[in-house]
Recover the amino acids of this structure.
């Protein structure tokens, strides 16, 4: 699990962990509100006591002021922490979306690689499989575009998140383009192969001897 640094803090990169941290912070915020209410009650009592006890008045008021200052400081830090955790959660959601597309690309790349294991004479079947993959790519393109758009929105809201977002976005674009290019190359190669197969079949019917000689030459060049 990688770590993202934010200011002086370090946040683990996981949607689940980020969400758990937010829940913990909400519990802390609730306890902080309880402290505020208790301090309000204590302040009222302290002010009344200070008005009645001139000898210890300054000491009482100083103590109340110190408590209020510390509580305000904790409240400000808590507010900042809440914003950081929310940003981190949004970022981890984006990373998870990217990971899902990356996993899909990896899966389809493996499918494309495995097609080369099929017999070359089954060109029509291979062509159908690659075309089906191309259709899947077009269907998934909309989802991938939404993920990229989500990344841009994050950067618009949180400019300091631009480096990690751009890094993941560019890697996603690169892997996506590679899959698209490899699929197109496979379709082109199969189209050429189908043309050659059709020509060989036609030649075999019209001139079997010529077809045999041509096959021998091709086999020799393929070794």
């Amino acid at each position: 699990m990688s770590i993202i640094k934010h200011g002086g803090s370090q946040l683990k990169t996981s949607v689940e962990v980020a969400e758990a941290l937010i829940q913990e912070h909400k519990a802390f915020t609730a306890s902080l509100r309880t402290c505020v209410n208790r301090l309000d009650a204590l302040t009222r009592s302290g002010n009344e006591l200070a008005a009645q006890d001139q000898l210890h008045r300054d000491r009482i008021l100083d103590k109340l002021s110190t408590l209020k200052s510390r509580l305000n400081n904790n409240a400000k830090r808590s507010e900042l922490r809440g914003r950081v955790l929310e940003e981190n959660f949004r970022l981890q959601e984006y990373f998870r979306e990217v990971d899902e597309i990356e996993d899909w690309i990896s899966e389809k790349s493996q499918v494309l690689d495995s097609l080369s294991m099929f017999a070359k004479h089954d060109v029509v079947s291979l062509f159908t499989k690659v075309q089906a993959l191309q259709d899947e790519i077009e269907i998934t393109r909309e989802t991938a575009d939404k993920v990229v758009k989500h990344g841009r929105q994050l950067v618009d809201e949180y400019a300091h998140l631009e480096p990690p977002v751009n890094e993941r976005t560019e890697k996603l674009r690169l892997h996506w383009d590679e899959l698209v290019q490899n699929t197109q190359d496979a379709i082109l190669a199969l189209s050429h192969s189908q043309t050659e197969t059709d020509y060989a079949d036609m030649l075999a019917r019209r001139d079997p001897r010529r077809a045999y000689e041509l096959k021998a030459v091709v086999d020799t060049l393929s070794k």
